[in-house]
Amino acid sequence: MPELSDLKAGLLAMLGDAEIRATLRELFGLEEKEKEIRELKEEVAASKLVISQQEERLADLEQYSRRNCLNFTGVPESRDENTVQLAIDLAKMANVKLERADIDRAHRVGRPREAAPNQPAPSPRTLVVKYVSYLKREAVWFGRKQLRQAKPPRSSGLTDGATKEVFVQENLTRKNQEIMYLARQLKRAGKLWAVWSDGCVLKVKQSQQSATVRLRCKTDLRRFE
């Protein structure tokens, strides 16, 4: 009487590879499990897409909430300064007349910095100004280049020449700051001609003649690398 192992070997010899795989799938239910795995992978991919879209919408909303703000770096800082009045003075130097009611709030970023013994004074903290009106914010934004040459108002605590190192930026989210940093790196490497933000929208041009490209995420920069 033939051994059981001989019968198995003979059976396998009669079947092709495809038939063996099909038989094994039927025996162990692999086909059904593979189907379940495919469906689960599709569900995970769909969920990741939804999450990515939601994160993008939230990022856009956060950036939109900052559109009335401007960041001023290099503005001299004093212990008892009135940041709202400082914002009004800076606007006047940009040839924009503002009243107290035009400023929602103005504040320095971070904790006050104390100079270490025998060390130079720390650089002033960034001043963030939120304007009530986007039009007022835009007026200051477009007049920002005048800040470095303009004289402070007589009643201001600022002195002549105090704003020659002032730099004005749009108040971008951390995500958009990172994108802009990478874009500027590409510009330094000669792969982009211009990098800027306009109304908190990030834009680049590969050459002076090329079309403007809007940046929404880091992967948008891959085409320029």
Write up what this structure looks like.
This protein has about 220 residues and is an alpha+beta fold. The strands form 2 sheets. The protein has a 4-stranded antiparallel beta sheet with strand order 2-3-1-4. It contains 6 helices and 7 strands, in the order αααβαββαβαβββ. It folds into 3 domains: about 5-65, no CATH class; about 65-170, RRM (RNA recognition motif) domain (Alpha-Beta Plaits), CATH 3.30.70; about 175-225, no CATH class. Helices cover about 40% and strands about 15% of the residues. The termini are far apart. The protein is elongated, with a radius of gyration of 31 Å. Keywords: Coiled coil.
Provide a concise account of the structure shown:
InterPro entries: Transposase_22 (IPR004244). The chain is α+β, with helices and mostly antiparallel strands and 225 residues long.
List the helices and strands and how they pair.
Blueprint: H1 4-14, H2 17-28, H3 30-65, E1 69-73, H4 83-93, E2 103-108, E3 127-131, H5 134-142, E4 167-170, H6 174-188, E5 194-198, E6 201-205, E7 213-215
Antiparallel strand pairs: 1-3, 1-4, 2-3, 5-6, 6-7
